[in-house]
Design goal:
InterPro entries: ELO_fam. Belongs to the ELO family. This protein is an all-alpha fold.
Amino acid sequence: MDKMIPFMDWPGKYSSMDSMTFMGSPFPLLLIICSYLYFVLFMGPKMMELRRPMNIRIIILPYNILQAFLFSYIVLEMINNGFSFELTWKCVVENGEDMNELHNNMWLFMILRIFELFETIFVVLRKKRSQLTFLHIYHQTTSVLVFWILLKYHSGMMEIFLIVISSIGHVIKTNKRW
């Protein structure tokens, strides 16, 4: 019984990615997403139904600053590790050593996507129901799942391109909130 149960064995494209937190199996990530959906769609609104909106600016401001800093860090690290845009919008990495650093930054991006689920929780706690759209919830959940799948089974240049563009967008979006 040295081998894992077959349905629990989820080898990815790169063994280095398999050893990172949340990358060994989809089940912990699915548990987080199911808990998020339960809170956002059922428990949170029910809990806030008879309460006044929470004033959580003291949490949101450091959260936004940290998000802007970390997304900026990812962009700078990707550039420092050999990422560049060519005229054809193709990504280039010069050597395999840089690819390990890029994988670390890709993983960090996915972790930030998980922490971004808190944005919706903040919306629920502040009773801003107009911001709580199907598209918002769909985007938050699927972006985490899609990046997990891409990192686990592909981890190529297209993901790096998407991460850099998305990170730049998040820095701009976060800075507009200040």
